[in-house]
Specification:
alpha/beta; TIM Barrel; eight-stranded parallel β-barrel; 11 strands; about 45% helix; globular
Length: about 325
Amino acid sequence: MPKIGYLLPTRERIMEGRDETAALLALAEKAEGLGFDSLWVGDSLLARPRHDPLTLLAAIAARTRTAQLGTAVLLPALRNPVVLAHQVATLDRIAEGRVILGVGIAPDVPNVRAEFAAAGVPFDKRVGRMVEGLMLCRALWSGKPVTWPKPGMEGRWTVQSGVLGPTPHRPGGPPIWSAGAVTAARQRAGRLFDGWFPTSARPENYAKEWAEVTAAAKAAGRDPSTLTPAMYVTFSIDDDTRRADDKLNAYLKEYYGVDPQLTRKMQRCFAGTPADAMAVMKSYVDGGVTHLMLRFAGDHDRHLALAARIRRDLGW
């Protein structure tokens, strides 16, 4: 059966001037109670201000028992990988092995470039920093002494026989799912990571694009069956299709500050009736998605209930 996830509205709450976390924790508990398989939190420092994802997920971990807990998506390049490895290992211990690390390189837009500059991180080096940083995290998660960089390798960070404690609950650390929909991102996911987690893949193209991921995994000597095909989709569900569409456009305009039609070209966003939403969800699963993460355009209590009902009707 496919797994269904829910993105908590951390960015939206900050935009509304509601910095408190009690309502977010209550939504996480509600989603788990409704049968959602995973709970997700986004990441940004200054470009799209929101709660720190790892800190908030630690609180959610203490309030939930079964749902997996993920980042959608974390920007590892903004963080020192030794510190990140320590934080994620501790979070995975609190969650008792329920963490999924969704990661990405960040889009090339002015406010994100400014965010990287504010963090003292060269934006144009973000892919290499992410890849090397996560390699170093995995090495530290072994619990064995780590010397970095490895012989013959030029590295950005230096570690001399460093030993991390605690190690993650899951041996080797949590699975890492990589975002991105261009060919290079799909190949990177297959070569290096444990899943592919795009926001822009269309259901009719998903199987073909996933085949690129698995081909890259095979070429790297990896078992493609161990990788997770995931997807991130934004939904606005209403009995009135036009009202659903208006709500989605208003949500995207406020969230990103640009013409919502531009966002809808870059990300998979759906507006329509519950029956139409059911068809969209089914189309992704039919295309090979095994973990579908839902972001809602407002009305979270109502959307959670609707999505839970749709899932029951689908027999998932």
